Amino acid sequence: MMDHQEYQELLALHALDALDAPERRALNEHLATCSQCQLELIELRDAAGLLAHATTPAAPGDEVRARILDQARAEARRNQPAAEPSAPVVAFPSRAAASRWPDLVRLAAALAFVALLLGLVVFWRRDVQSRRQVVRLTEVINEQSDQSLHDFEELARLREAVELLNSPTMKRMELAGTQTAKNARATFVYDRRNGRAMLITQGLPMTPPDMAYEVWFIPKGHSPMPGKMFTVDAFGRGVMADHVPPEARENAVIAITLEPKRGSASPTGAIYLSSPAS
Amino acid sequence: MQAKPSEISDNDLLRAISRGDERALAAIYDRYRLILFGLILRILHDRQEAEDVLQEAFLQVWRRAADFDESRGRAFTWLVTIARSRALDRLRALGSRAKLAEEVGHSPREEAGDAAEDALKSEQGTIVRQALAELPEEQRRTLFLAYFEGLTQTEIAARLGDPLGTVKTRMRSGLMKLRELLSNQSRGL
User: Fold this and answer.
1) Does A81 touch chain B (CB under 8 A)?
2) Residue B23 distance to chain A (closest CA, Å)
């Protein structure tokens, strides 16, 4: 076990992404709880970023600018976030919605979305009433969308969640916190037919600046397959949609690790949550 | 955006981008294309690949500007991190780090155009190059291997044939010194 000073000495190497996996893992765990080291890492990353000035500036072709702006415009028209690996925890309005809706309305919608989702889960756990409640909630959502809220992507996600919870081929798994995060819990539900999935976490530690949680599907006898990245709010809550690969829809273990924000191809960080071995 | 693009801070530009403002994306591209393209080219040594990665990087800026958090570092660092990560990912995907290093015996300096020459004279670049020039050669080399080739401490030790502890100390001292020099010399960086 290293002490604070030893961790501090690793910060410069971390700012250059030059640590080997075990040290990086240990440092990230320390960073999650040490604001002093977090601040120093920010400064060192800023210093490392300046190394870019050591290169000779060079001009890209003129057509690159046009290509970027054309594609950005096309994506804005489609009005949906691009297929980046990271999924925000609590859904925020899309760009087009953001420009049209005042902050308070957006906040209220985001809160309502979280409340509805959490409500959904509670209802769904009460097996007997769940279907009826889900149907009622669906009606509420439909009413809301009639009231011109239809361009909130939250509603689309909520609809997907309702469909998923209603699916006859839905499977649910409980994930328990490991030694690293004893208070963490999560519920993972997915549709065995099409792999559509949703993860709801509680009690996970906040992630350090450059880190995020990554989902792993570990089919029996296979290496872990990466799922999406996500972060959590101040209470360790996260809600995220993902897709389970066909190989992992039966007899797979689901685990959550802490990884560099842009994602890892195989797990490098500590395990925070895991489903029981099947 | 009411002010001229050149008067708007990086943070404000990123905020505008997160609201879907294309002019802000164009402005941040114009502001940083030379330095970021220089960085990507230095990593990849191939203009076409580098232009492709530059495009990917700015599209990532477009999609993810809302993730930028000014309390967690400077906008410039955020932009450079995206460009460098994308370039190193591409380098690894190309799987020919050693081959590229062998092929490229020349510095890309000759490729810089007029605009690049102007940027070369920029105050920021001058300050950083001065700071780097003050570092001992071996410290500079380890920093460059990590930053531009994406090597880990162990890989650098193997590459240079130096003990791991020495490499760690050099990298750490190099970066700390750079931080110190920069904070002494600059306000505008």
Assistant:
1) yes
2) 9
